[in-house]
Amino acid sequence: MKNKIEEFIGKIINDDCMKIMKNMPDECIDLTITSPPYDDLRDYENNLVWNNNVFKEVANDLFRVTKKGGVVVWVIGDKTTKGNKSLTSFKHALYFQEIGFNIYDVIIYEKAGSGPPHPNRYFNTFEYMFILSKGKPKTVNLLRDKKNSCAGMSTFGNITRREKDGSLVNKGKKIINEFGVRTNIWRYNNGKGFSSKDKIAYEHPATFPEKLVEDHINSWTNIGDIVFDPFGGSGTTAKVSMQLKRRWIYIEKVEKYCTIAKKRIATIDQNTDYKTIIIKNNIDITLQKLNDNYLNLSETGNIFCIVKTQYKDGVVEKDFFDVIDFATKKLGLYYINTIIIPEETDYTDNILYCVWFVKNKENFYFNKDKIREKSIWKDVEWGKRTKNYNPKGKDPGNVWIPTIDDGKANITKHILLSVEEIFNRIFNATLIENDKYLLILDNNKLKNYKYNDNGNIEIIREVYKDINFGKTTTTKLKDESEVKVIFNTSESMDLVKNEKVDLIVTSPPYWDLKNYYKKNQIGQESYDIYSSRMKLVWQECYNKLNSYGSIWININIRVRDGKPILLPKLFIDQCKNLGFLYRGILIWHKSSGIPTNSKNLSDHHEYILIFTKSDKCKINIGNLILYNDYKNSKISNKLIWNINRKAGSVGKNTIHPAIFPTELINRIVVTSSNENDIVLDPFLGSGTSLIASVNNKRNFIGYEYNEGFKSLMQERFAKEIKFKDVNIEYLENIVY
After folding, report:
1. pTM for the whole structure
2. 259: helix, strand or coil
3. Where do the domains of the chain lie, and which CATH numbers do they carry?
4. Which of 319, 549, 590, 622 could form a disulfide with 545 if both were Cys (CB 3.0 to 4.6 A apart)?
């Protein structure tokens, strides 16, 4: 079993690289920069065995551990024996090509400080740097430092471009830039005093110029990428990687050279002792600042990114799911939770998303006891059952809306937290005395807030826009009346006419979570197959929805081993690619949450993603004034609904594992459809969406894969549907 890559990062490993690489996971390295001990040119403490078989083993392991799009920089020359070049360099290059690498480029490393010339050959001043890529390089930042002698002047003639159809397009004259792209001959001063300022580095017989490593890191990686040197030598690659905020792995067989590397690295001011980093800004700047600063977080620290959904031209441009995706996939951080915080604003979208990450999911500091809220339920709810009562207070959960009560367990007011109070909560839970923190803020200047001497504040302006559902419209009432339940998969909804449906509301099965008791159900297969099947469902939804319709998808994030399963982002991307307009997120706030451990917050919310098919839609955002869930008008009437879920005991023996609260669907139906409109649910489950639709005088079509839920539906319909003369048509065992 391979070790996790985190076990190797940032460590001086004194061992044989062939042994260590065997334990590294597949496709984990972004960039390798190294020079092997080729042709026995140096005496490396008589501690190395190097031959063609050893090379091939190293090469094969490098191919395995290199990410798709990753790069290997292989610095090598040739030994001359009795006037005959070994051509080891070309032999290596050809073998790398044979096992699957692309020879993306060949760069000449010209040594300005080479030794004396040979009496019978031309002065040898170079080595080869083979740029090997695994597929197309994912990062190419070409260095532009070649001074143009004609900078600022225009070209003599017009620039033309040949189009695909063969036509010639005149682009006009071009102004010559001051600097152009560097050539593939790179010249460096090397040798003592030039390759490095570290005198101890020259105790190694062949030290890289630090500038050479810097140029390759800047060319082929981004901040946070992993840089590897399997023949680490004096530690130049590791040192420069640290300076450029890349993660690094160093392996060296000779203990003496490891000691040199440790001493060189120890001189670097890493500034990695922030225990808490808070970034509050728009999403673009947040991603930038997260990328620039996450390496400065201590191993036991926390990062909180506070963002709002960003809109452009009436649709969502970016949201907090993009932050999670970037932080976990690009930076390798672990996701802990997303805290929902309403803010005081006139906008309909009043939600701040506080996304919480850590470097080390097993060992980070978080003291929930410091931010517990007053528990008002002890005497009323728990009585003498003190084992369920924490005298320190209740878990604040991941929806931060504190309350004031009358002393009799009745909430009298819901509180909006100020920016200062949000920060205080985070600091109290994540810092102890003298801990260092970093704040990166927008233009919401803090008043009456005292920073410690180590605080670092950066003020950056931001602009937020509100949610926009397009042009609200109405349509004529339909004459037909139908209520259907179809027991079949919604991957093909052929019994529904295209563009017939006015509203789709659903909660799809989560991947690898709940078992709905039937073979071949969606959600119990591999993730890739799950994704492809859900795409078919959304395609069918798009086809069935009319141009005025909308779709509301209830979904949440799953977390496995600190890595989020971003089902919301999966569905957002799939729906956008199909042509849906992504309009925003409705927060379903649940009073009763799912408990968690001492280093997390209980789960009190889910997300409802809102899409429309066109700029014209039936969503009447004015209906939000009908819903006063909070004793605070500045929280109510916006994009957060406080509706508790009570699965209850319906169908005792056939209970559905995830029952919607009817009130939630009631609101969606009233807000986004008219009487006699057709509502569709492709995952009907226990029948909640049918009940809400029919009770609000809508027609309804529901798909449910498991016909075993029919008895549960019938039991609920008999109790909960207001109109007893409703004819519900059940279609079972449909075969297409």
Report:
1. 0.68
2. helix
3. 5-143+182-266 (3.40.50.150), 149-181 (no CATH), 274-459 (3.40.50.150), 471-731 (3.40.50.150)
4. 549
